Amino acid sequence: MIDYSSGVPVYRQVAAAIRDDITAGRYQPGAWLPSEAQLAQMYEVGRDTVREALAYLRAEGRITTVRKRGSMVTVEPTREPYEVPVGARVIARMPTPEERRDLATSGELREFGGMPEGVPVFEVVPGPRKHRRVLRGDRIELVVREPEAGE
Hints:
151 residues, two-stranded antiparallel ribbon
């Protein structure tokens, strides 16, 4: 399964195999993945390689890791539309630790201590003298409308 001569880093090959299993439905949303030790045995690689693969999938937003419990396939949340004000700037970035805490649900605060890692935010800056908004990238869908004549 792992091709050491392919030129593709081994952790990326392991991440691709796990991603394929998620896409194929072997691991359903909300399901726990096998432990790091089990994954290392399944793919015949070291645990450090498995950790790198899991970090890669976490950065993609496909899994969430809970310390001392393991990694779980991310559940796709319902997205609410957010209409971007005309002329506003939207910046996609990773949240600060304070934003991870402030934007977390009560369940996420209990489970993860804040919003799961790998979830980006959108910072909407409507214009001068207006307050910026920071929105969770996994819970909203940005809606951009064309300005009407005269706007």
